[in-house]
Design goal:
Blueprint lengths: L5 E5 L1 H16 L2 E6 L2 E3 L5 E10 L5 E10 L4 E2 L4 E2 L2 H14 L4 E13 H6 L7 H7 L2 H6 L3 E14 L4 E4 L2 E21 L2 E4 L7 E4 L1 H4 L10 E3 L2 E3 L2
Parallel strand pairs: 1-5, 1-13, 8-9
Antiparallel strand pairs: 2-3, 4-5, 4-8, 6-7, 9-11, 10-11, 11-12, 14-15
The structure holds zinc ion (ZN).
Length: 233
Amino acid sequence: MHYKRYIVRISENALISLILSSLEAYSVKKKDIKEKGRPKSRIEVYGSLFGHEIIMKNKAILYHVEMANTDTTAEQRRSSVDVNREAISLKADIVTSFWPHLIYLGDFHSHPFKNTREVLDNKMYFMSENDREWLNDNFWKQKGYRVGLVMTIAAMEKAGRRASGWVASNCVDATLGNYRMWLSAYCAYSQKGEYKYTNDNDLCVTLDCPALTGLRWEHADFGRFKNGQYKPL
Ligand SMILES: [Zn+2]
């Protein structure tokens, strides 16, 4: 079922992990990944997301990503990453058993680009066709996969201080010194027996990342001051 509205909310803790993992894979050479005999940096990274699912008063569904944990057994490459299903099953299983306040929510992976031009010219901060094809496999549905995050990262010649903001309702950008990053959120739903991601630019998905954007809007109507007095609605 395709819900009318999804909110994907990222905790500061999860955001820090997402940034650290994608930045490490982007900037630090990994010995066992070689091209023409030389270790390579700018590779993809993959990990699992854990958090909560909340049905809101207005029936919107909120996925709160509490933590993002890098899968150390995923095989990292330049323009792809091979997932290790055993790792995902193990993590989902252990979390359910020992930390029952968390559920397996989905995954994240990074898209490394040489420079911001490459990203901006073709809106490469969105998901690739390959990413979409992956999802159509019973494994994900069985695991309760609900959210996919893509962290796109590119280097800039000059360090910047641009404030973070939305480039689409499901995508927020951030500038950290010489790096620019874009975090995009997708939700998974069943349709005619297929398990699918929501679209790029999909207005039914809002990415809420208060650690980057601040508390910009209300999820539900909040009380107002009336006649000089605070009145809860
Ligand atoms: Zn991808």
